[in-house]
Amino acid sequence: MVREVIGVLGGWRTRTADAESPMAVNADLTGRRILDCTLGGGGHSAALLAAGADVTGVDRDPAAIAQASARLKEFAEAGRFRSMLANYADLAAVAAAGDATFEGILLDLGVSSHQFDDEARGFSFRAGAPLDMRMSRAATTAESADNGPEIASVRSPDRSPSAAEWLNESSESEIAAALRDYGDERRAARMAAEIIRRRANKPFAISDDLVGAVRAVLGPRSGPPDFARIFQAVRIAVNDELGGLARALPALRDRLASSGVIGVITYHSGEDRLVKHAFREWSRSCTCPPRQPFCICGGDNALGDVVTRKAVVAAADEIVRNARARSAKLRAWRRRAGRRTSPGK
Ligand SMILES: C[S@@+](CC[C@H](N)C(=O)[O-])C[C@H]1O[C@@H](n2cnc3c(N)ncnc32)[C@H](O)[C@@H]1O
User: Fold this and answer.
1) Which of 192, 220, 238 is the last residue of a domain?
2) Cα 221 to averaged position of ligand 1 atoms, centre (Å)
3) If you take atom 1 of ligand 1, which residue's CA is the nearest one?
4) How far apart are CA 1 and CA 91, in angstroms?
5) CA distance 43 to 177
6) How confident is residue 98, by pLDDT bands cut at 50, 70 and 90?
C-alpha cells in the first residue's frame, strides 16, 4: 500500500485529500518530517524519502533496523534518514526521540516478510520451527548473518516472552482469551484446555507442538488457514500488539504537527477496531457525557478529522503480488490546524 500511504500522508496540506482515491493527491513531501513507526524492510520509508520527505524510522526488531539502515544508507548520509531501535509504544521513554513533532506518522502493523520468512524467528508453522515469535529478538539465520556484527551489537531494550514461554506459563483463561479475541477461534476454551493438558506432559518448544494441539481440537480436516489464525493469535499476545497500539495512538497523535496526518495499516479486525474508534473519538465535536440532555461543552472540541471515510484497501494488482495485502486496511486522521491535542502542545 505504498501509493496509498504516500497519498494520505502527502495530502496533509490539503483539507480535501480524496480518501477513496488517495493516489489522486499530488504528493510532494519535500522537507516534511515523517515518523515511520514500523520501519521493517524500509519499503515505505524508501518511497517517502523518494517523495522528498525526511524520515525517522523506528522498529523494535534489531534485524529490521540493520537491514533498513543498510538499504537507506545514502539518505542517512545526506541527513534525511535516521533509525531508532524502540517500541513505538514507548517512544516517550526514548531520549533520542526527544519531543519532536511530525507532519506525517505511519504505522504498518504486524509482522514483516523478513521476519516471517526467517524460520529461526518462529513466526511460521513450518515443521520443526522454534516457537519464538518475538519481534524484538535479533535474527540468527544465515540470511541475516550478512548483517551479523551490526545485529549482534544491538540489543533490543524491549523484552517479550517467547511463544513457547507464553504457551508454557500463561493461565488457561489467558490462553483461551487470546485464541478467541486474536484468532477468532470458536473452540478457544477447548483448545486452551488441550494446551494445558499437553504442556503438563511435555513443554511446548516447536511449531509441531502447537499444530498438534490445534489438530487435536479441530480434527484432521484442520489445515494451514487454522494454523495461521492460531499462530497469529499467539504472536499478537506474545508481543502485546493490541496493548501497545492502544497506548501508542494518543501519544503519537500528540506528536503530530499542526495539520499533520497519522496513517495506520492494520491486518486484523481487533487492530482496525481500535484505530477506527480512536480516530472517531478524536474527531468528536461534542464531548459531553452521552446522557447529558443538552450540550454544555460548547461543541467545538474536535481535535482533527478522519481523512479516510472508509478504510482504504489494497488495489487488485497489489493483492496478486502480495497475498498478505488482502487483509490490509489503511485509515488516516488529520490534526486540525492550530488545535492543541494535549496540554502544552
Ligand atoms: C509490516 S512490517 C513493516 C514493513 C514496512 N512498512 C516496509 O515497507 O518494509 C511491521 C514492522 O513493524 C515492527 N513492529 C511491530 N510492532 C512494533 C512496535 N510496537 N514497535 C516498533 N516496531 C514494531 C515489526 O518488527 C516489523 O518490522
Assistant:
1) 238
2) 33
3) 112
4) 25
5) 34
6) confident
136 lines ligand 1 (CB under 6 A): no
Residue 197, all three cell numbers: 493438558
Look at residues 219, 238, 257 and tell me which one is the last residue of a structural domain: 238
Q: What is the model's pTM?
A: 0.89
The residue type found at 69 is S
Domains in the chain: how many in total? Answer: 2
What CATH number does the domain containing 205 carry? Answer: 1.10.150.170
CB 274 within 8 A of CB 245: yes
177 plus 263 within the same structural domain: no
pLDDT in tens, 153-186: 344 456 789 999 999 999 999 999 999 999 999 9
Q: Is 260 in the pocket of ligand 1 (CB under 6 A)?
A: no
Kindly state if the Cβ of 58 falls inside 6 Å of ligand 1: yes
DSSP code, position 265: E
The string of pLDDT tens digits covering residues 273-294 is 999 999 999 999 888 888 888 8
Q: Is 88 in the pocket of ligand 1 (CB under 6 A)?
A: yes
Ligand 1, atom 14, lies closest to the CA of 38
**Cell numbers standing for residue 342:** 494535549
Query: Which atom of ligand 1 lies at the shortest distance from residue 38's CA?
Result: 12
**H helices present in 184-323, as ranges:** 188-201, 207-218, 224-238, 241-253, 269-282, 316-321
What does the alpha-carbon distance between residue 115 and residue 136 come to, in Å, rounded to a whole number? 10
H or E segment to which residue 274 belongs: helix 269-282
Residue 27 belongs to domain with CATH number: 3.40.50.150
Strand, helix or coil for residue 177: helix
**Contact 135 CB / ligand 1 (< 6 Å):** yes
Q: Let me know whether 246 and 234 are in one domain.
A: no
Strands 329-335 and 256-266, how do they pair?
A: antiparallel
